[in-house]
Amino acid sequence: MQPISITTRKADPMVTLTDAAAAKVAQLIEAEGDTSLMLRVGVRPGGCSGFSYEMFFDTERNDDDIISEFGGVSVAVDAESMTMLDGAEIDYKDGLQGAGFAINNPNVSRACGCGNSFS
Q1: 66 partner at 20 to 30 Å CA-CA among 8, 11, 87, 115?
Q2: Of 29, 37, 30, which Cα lies nearest the Cα of 58?
């Protein structure tokens, strides 16, 4: 009897958008007037804690991108950033204390006070 090789692939997206975040991104894309835009999320060296998040609209898909869709919004994350964003959730809050996107990243061991950089 020969051994059976099984390859498993994570079925769930590794970075998720809440419904509120997907709705806000869709609203911003609509305001831009370019339906080919997707949200690109990444991690780059920098900031007071070592790494910082970046989010921007993009139309280019790279070979190493991991693409997920939430509420009609495409989200692209490059493979290198994904190692630090696996399991992260992007939310959008609009309240008395301000409005904006927040990233809840379970991989963060230390974050700065502003919440924009981490290690």
Answers
A1: 115
A2: 37
What's the full length of the chain, in residues? 119
Q: Which residue has the tokens 């099984």?
A: 6
At the topology level, CATH places domain 15-118 in Hypothetical Protein Aq_1857; Chain: A; (2.60.300)
Q: Token digits for 86?
A: 């696996």
Residue 17 CB partners (closer than 8 Å, separation 6+): 25, 39, 70, 71, 73, 75, 89, 90, 91
Are the C-beta atoms of 46 and 52 separated by less than 8 Å?
Answer: yes
| Upper half-sphere CA count for residue 109 (Cβ side, 13 Å) | 3
pTM of model > 0.90:
no
As a whole number of Å, the end-to-end CA separation of the chain is 47
Q: What is the pLDDT of residues 2-22, one digit of tens each?
A: 545 343 344 456 899 999 999
Residue 65 burial (CB count, 10 A): 18
* Structural contact between residues 28 and 17, judged by C-beta atoms closer than 8 angstroms: no
